[in-house]
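Q: What does the assembled structure look like for these inputs?
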Amino acid sequence: MSIWGIVPAAGMGSRIQPLAFSKELLPVGSRLDGETERPKAVSEYLVERMILAGASRICMAISPGKWDIIAYYGGSVGPASICYVVQPEPRGLCDALFRAVPLIAPGDQVLIGLPDTVWFPEDGLSRLGEGALSFLLFPVQRPELFDAVVTGDDGRVLEIQVKRPGAASVWVWGAFRMPGRVFHDLHRLWRERQERDTYVGTLVNSWLARGGEAWGVRAGESYVDVGTLHGYREAIQLLERRPSEAPVSFAR
Amino acid sequence: MSIWGIVPAAGMGSRIQPLAFSKELLPVGSRLDGETERPKAVSEYLVERMILAGASRICMAISPGKWDIIAYYGGSVGPASICYVVQPEPRGLCDALFRAVPLIAPGDQVLIGLPDTVWFPEDGLSRLGEGALSFLLFPVQRPELFDAVVTGDDGRVLEIQVKRPGAASVWVWGAFRMPGRVFHDLHRLWRERQERDTYVGTLVNSWLARGGEAWGVRAGESYVDVGTLHGYREAIQLLERRPSEAPVSFAR
Amino acid sequence: MSIWGIVPAAGMGSRIQPLAFSKELLPVGSRLDGETERPKAVSEYLVERMILAGASRICMAISPGKWDIIAYYGGSVGPASICYVVQPEPRGLCDALFRAVPLIAPGDQVLIGLPDTVWFPEDGLSRLGEGALSFLLFPVQRPELFDAVVTGDDGRVLEIQVKRPGAASVWVWGAFRMPGRVFHDLHRLWRERQERDTYVGTLVNSWLARGGEAWGVRAGESYVDVGTLHGYREAIQLLERRPSEAPVSFAR
Amino acid sequence: MSIWGIVPAAGMGSRIQPLAFSKELLPVGSRLDGETERPKAVSEYLVERMILAGASRICMAISPGKWDIIAYYGGSVGPASICYVVQPEPRGLCDALFRAVPLIAPGDQVLIGLPDTVWFPEDGLSRLGEGALSFLLFPVQRPELFDAVVTGDDGRVLEIQVKRPGAASVWVWGAFRMPGRVFHDLHRLWRERQERDTYVGTLVNSWLARGGEAWGVRAGESYVDVGTLHGYREAIQLLERRPSEAPVSFAR
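A:
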């Protein structure tokens, strides 16, 4: 059994253009390398959190031309080895994630997050159950910009409201976890639905309608989307206010 | 069970410099794309032979900067999906191959070849046994430039003579196959030997000395190393003389 | 007074795709580097001919992403220094050439050729007059694929027939030369015509209609367009048949 | 007569590594593009100041691999066209600057600055004389980290103290200007001195010793070197405190 982190880094980053590089590499905050302070790419926050939750393998899905991501991360981050898959056409988040399907065994664990977000607590992924599809939820002020997750009293996910005005929940998912077996099931469902789903939310709603089960865990405390200049500034403030309690820094 | 092809494409190609691109992408011969004749990169010959032998997953090990390989192959070749791993430092063939270890399950099959060679017959990899380490052997005029494989009457490998003047066999390996389990064993042995082996030959000799078994299959007919200008011209002649009997061409 | 070579290397090379690199870098023939035979990129033939005609400055016009050209040529070729300009959108040959306008002084000499052609004699550019727009003409079998140049008995250009079936001349231009002053005049005319001309031929016809003068010099002997697989093979044969009489090889 | 801006962007940026991109492209502050706020690369501050001082041509000297700079700037910035030259080996600032020599006519004006600095006032380059070598000086707290410029009462430069502890002046140069003729003279002197000078300061001292003249203009107000994380933060603060009084933003 391996714990895999899947990092979908194929997006164009059109909300924060022009950048001279892939948006996942925007420097945000810093890390200590011995005594020297070093700039830190935004996606390192996600990779660190995955490793903290036990990931020993990271698969990054990139689009053609985003070679700077491979140049930056190379062969491994700390204890985790990295491999790369390519999404040839910009066909959305689901297509990017499922590029990793050939690498995942049914008995593996799969961790998924977004490489242009910064969130706390750092051990959030460890709070998710291992046996089923489980979402790490964060309270946000404008849930209508995200995938709002409506749960029952027991935490069971009832519906995901994708970028819906007047969303019924302020809790949005920021990362999720599932067994490899469920990842394969979701992939099959996606294929069955003609690969129509680009967002995770609509695919999961269909999965729930067919009897699938998913859980929401309200363990998230703060969440910033660094995909815009506004979010970028927010992230800088969040990191100044809340430096890592348990600093995790992995040599690259 | 998956059949994996591992393609070590991390070498510098210093014997054929300057090229403006990775040596694995040197155009050699052509392929038909509908009615249109297209240039064909030398490494496509290996990838096609792997697919012909059943590979559904290809892992390419590249070194930093060789992004043109990823740009060329993208996400898949015909029925096979591709992923990429990175060898950060030029530490030889063994190190490059073992970058794929995290992706291979013990029950998988592993096919390995060199992406700057062209050889016949095209179905050579299918002639190798599945249960043990098995080398596809080719007769060459100057075995001292390669890994000459000395076998017993039953085909059992006795020794690999690495670039040895006066090699005892004219048969050199051009590709090989093994179960994932054996690939992991070889990896452990390599680690144990302080990752000292850069060539496959010395590692396999050590494996044999410890009781490991390997087989040589003299099914190869022609073999050209395209890593030099001389070999490049030889390959062009070989392909004119011997166009594919069973043309395999995979849309990319 | 400087002699400039302008090399339009912004085209997509769609006739010879897929190549894993810019078509101007396709290896064709070889050159000796001391005792070692090296592959030679097709565009080196043009650059060498420009230097042979006295060019001390080369300006390459590339399109975004064709960084392999800059990686290959770097800062200089032999005695000539190189600079690069960028054509952001694929707007044709004229637009690419005129990207060099800011670099050219009225008193300079301008040499222009196509970086995916191989032609003889090597000193062809030296046979062109310096005082006016002057085309180096080559006899070809299918002038309807090129810009056929119709000249009077005295060599004065009467008309350029752009890719016209049943062209009235078998002589096509393969390179040309002019004073910087004329280059600026042509640029002004092109601007005046709303940058409509993509081919050189239509622009020159308009220039002639306004009283401009141009000359055709039938000094070309052989000419191969390496922009297709067919031309690529023809070039290899031409170079085997006709190795350089006066080998020019410049260290890079 | 043309006004050229020469931008030496060939440095490795080792003081602020790892960045996933060329240090000249670090986002610092922002610019308005219509109603949308956009990230702004640090080197855009220099380019804007050059254009404000009349530059119609920008020459960027890059080192191999820094293609992201070309991808970002492309063919032009606002009214200025851009060309690129390559410094093949890391041989210092003087070597990088003099790569532009073939492009500059004696009658041209040359503006030079550092693409990882932000300074005010924005029109500083316009305050420099056109007839001679003229430095734009800024008061800094730690002149020993820079080139401190010692001037006489009339502004004539007496000496440049290169990174000297206990420097005799708090005024350091942040940019400079000269006629093309002087640029060529300095180049000849540099060649004569076996291209030994890597810093501008030692070369200018030698130039002064030979009777050359240079002037210092104390018109600079604030100056930040963004080549370190510390400077990066300082620049962000400077830009918040002092948004451009006369915003200059050029479409790219």
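Chain A is about 25% helix and 30% strand.
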